[in-house]
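ugh ok so i messed up the first submission bc i forgot one of the chains. this is the corrected input, ALL of the components this time, i swear. 1148 residues overall. if the numbers dont match what u have on ur side tell me asap before i send this to the collaborators (the ones from the other lab, u know who)
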Amino acid sequence: MRKRFKNRSRPTGRRPAPSGAGRSKLKIIPLGGLEEVGRNMTIFEYKGDILIVDMGLQFPEEDMPGIDYIIPNIESLKGKEKQIKGVVITHGHYDHIGAISHLMSRLGNPPLYCTGLTEAIIQKKHEEYKNIPSLDIRRITSDSKIKLGQFRLEFFRVNHNIPDGVGIFIRTDSANVLHAGDFKFDFSPIGEKPIEVGKIVRFGEQGVDLLMSDSTNAGSPGYQISEKGIESELDKIFSKTRGRLIIATFASLVSRIQEIINLAQKYNRKVAIEGRSMRNIVEIALRNHYLIAKRGTFVDASRINRMKDNKVLVLCTGAQGEKRAALVRIANGEHRRISIKKGDTFIFSSSIVPGNERAVQNLKDLIYKAGGNVIHYQMMDIHTGGHAKIEELKMMMRLVKPKNVMPIHGNHFLLVTHGRLAKQLGYSDKHVVVARNGQVIEVSKQGVKATRRKMNTDYVMVDGLGVGDVSHIVLRDRKAMASEGMVVIVVSLDREGNLIGSPDIISRGFVYVDASKELIEGIRQKVKQVIAKNKHLAATDHNSLRARLRDDVGQQLYTKTERRPLILPVVVEV
Amino acid sequence: MRKRFKNRSRPTGRRPAPSGAGRSKLKIIPLGGLEEVGRNMTIFEYKGDILIVDMGLQFPEEDMPGIDYIIPNIESLKGKEKQIKGVVITHGHYDHIGAISHLMSRLGNPPLYCTGLTEAIIQKKHEEYKNIPSLDIRRITSDSKIKLGQFRLEFFRVNHNIPDGVGIFIRTDSANVLHAGDFKFDFSPIGEKPIEVGKIVRFGEQGVDLLMSDSTNAGSPGYQISEKGIESELDKIFSKTRGRLIIATFASLVSRIQEIINLAQKYNRKVAIEGRSMRNIVEIALRNHYLIAKRGTFVDASRINRMKDNKVLVLCTGAQGEKRAALVRIANGEHRRISIKKGDTFIFSSSIVPGNERAVQNLKDLIYKAGGNVIHYQMMDIHTGGHAKIEELKMMMRLVKPKNVMPIHGNHFLLVTHGRLAKQLGYSDKHVVVARNGQVIEVSKQGVKATRRKMNTDYVMVDGLGVGDVSHIVLRDRKAMASEGMVVIVVSLDREGNLIGSPDIISRGFVYVDASKELIEGIRQKVKQVIAKNKHLAATDHNSLRARLRDDVGQQLYTKTERRPLILPVVVEV
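and heres the new structure output, hopefully the right one now
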């Protein structure tokens, strides 16, 4: 306590005025992406000007039934719309672009900067939303140089598992930041050029105060395999396979799709595309020349049943076992045009997103039961990820030589793990910032500081057309109904609180009523008892009567079934 | 067609009478365990006598909200209770014992044969159920020889990740079967003896017509690591750690628990046990001498806060991220006696069960955020599985030299994979049986045949105290309510079908009502319209009125929100 008073009594003249101090430092506020995979969005603020990098969505956690996705919370930007000089998008993945259509008009529609493929994907997505203003997109290349208020930006091409991704070199009078986007090093990529290592070194030589670097694979040793290596493994499968080939991969893996097209041409197979997102991306990429295919490469899926097996290749989505995707519908016999036949070879050219393991096992079961065979990335090198592994993360630090390192993108334990890598390279604790979502980070030539200030980053959940109207209370009710179902009790009372007729008991998701007449009759008797015993409440205080019904019926049901359904008493006064 | 007629016209005397033919072959009917992990239960039937091996439960799939577990369907045993000569349990895991308390009394309580630890675990579990007869358990050892009607049984000790497991050599006049249970080869196990390789060879020399062998790890190359190797890796961690150690593993991993106790004694740490299942198993295993610990090894968790950090070891369950387990409660600060402090080292000495990956990531995040550190099996060899890997499966086939091989235990794609291993060893297609649940398999000296007969193996779901009363309809409703919530509409009508008062609209899990008054008011207006327009139904046919309300309100809500809540109209006639 004494110390604090002492500090306070210091003449203020001896340090810069608070407003000046705050304004002279570059502030960085990550609104998401530091405690999860997804909803990446970072605010840079300097001398009143704001730059935003990325605006992504996050897919829901398992305990959020019915939620489509989560978008960043922009409460802290309220009233600052005019300060936003621009939004830069590093690449076209949904965890970096998925919130654009929801948020841009609420931020005053600032100009949005991105490369060609990223623009095409954003526009296609934006068309799905009606009644919102069109976007002010300004296309850049990795060679662009732009000035947005206080921010001078340059870019460098990165490799990732979608083409046309960039990292950003952000300069201000206070500090320089290198934001590496989502990246990996691929020195023999397919259908795109390698990461611009030389530029990264030059930016580093200009002095980087803070490197913000992708942590998604900070727990994985070694280097990613080059796409060229994947292609040669796939080639082995193509050369040996006599039956039909069904290849599933992520729709956004344009490089992989290029390899598959190349191999289809080499081995005289026609490519049928299945799945809406796969068709969309192939169409966009072909139109914008990010995919190259000869005339006659593609075929409509309706024709493949008339073709020889060794001429057929189906390219589709769904290797995560997603229920509505093309692959699952093919496997469970619900697909209109394609059904499995004995001798079909399925290639899952993708990793399994954590949480989907069981769905993928069930998918493999369906395929094997129908006589198909599955080749998976655990058996051959037929997939490589898009995020730098441990040795590549170290390479990035060695190339950039930043004064400070801030791990971004990934679960918190991955940021910590990435931070430890920096320490292995000699960075001391104070030069490594492992921050939380919403935390205000200050950077200057003097160093980096994670302050105690924290912006609101509560989940904003999107469900159907509703944004933010599903609260934790709604989710709690959904979860309760999901695990134990619900019981509605309808009673009609006269003004004196006498029961009229017999109570109606309606249950859903609780027990199968035909099998449980006795249980339902027990509830009915209990309801009659409660009303008879609480006649004063029945006449005057329906709220309390409802609470009593809920408690007593709930107790009885728990004793008899060990289940706790949601109980909803409805009192009708007649 | 001609051929079939020709066959039919053959004098029947040239082949054995059909009844005799059926009776002279050993029939095997797997009621579960061939298309999933869990609900293992196999029927052996010969000359009217029945032997059952194992009686396990299956944990629910992701699309079965609220279901506790699934048990085997015993419909095909109805009326055959008196033919059941005995039930043999191979080991004490829930996927082999979990349905015993539900099914034994319905099967006429036949004698149940198992080893000592298995018996203790079954009895402990059985005590939790009230009002059911006690079990007729007859203890065996791996050296027992028993005769159950037509079946002559001998046993052999296996290694697995719970001690006291056995495989069974089943002899009949028609055929000999070797059922290997859940097994692996561990030539330096901890706290138990190695698998009885010599006996397996001797049984093989007597002629095995069919080997039934565990497929759980048929997709994993190589051999399992020996428990001795795990102990030495754990020793490295113990020797380096100065802070507290919190070790999470599966409760049934008695060998692992023995290693941890050994190391605690070596490094002078006291062991606090947390989690009900962990406490139960340690108590059972200590009492039955399957675990050996010196006096003073254990300490109550309430005392650890007063002990030096380097004296503390907490042993608990929950490394799968299960919400109610001790470890998650410690990590999220909800545990009564233990909270994380900086410098705590967490060891997850277990693999991740498919489907739990995301929960485990979230758990690691909680621990890192609280300042703890996690050592995981992906970083060091601190876990080994209980199921034979590829080379061990081949070893079993080489030791037994069976005429035919039937892969059991595991997802269907794993049975297929295991079958391919047999083919690599020279077995032709007709000597490898990949069967489905419920399929009737016939074995004799002449060979093995998977018939087209199939017993009912539909899921029997247990939810709370109810067995089989949750149907697919109930699950469908639960899923609907989980993803979109529900809306109850209550209308009071007079006998002429006129609305009395205003309709009551109650929603749960749909939208947060305070935020959506307009939406609710819209429903109310729609309800009034529907009733006014359908006065004839309102007066005479409430079922049709309800259907109309459900359709029209549903349509309106979908247009406005793109959600489809479960809609429940209630009509009260006054």
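quick check: Confidence is low (pLDDT under 50) at residues 1-21 of chain B. that seems consistent at least. Chain B is about 30% helix and 25% strand.
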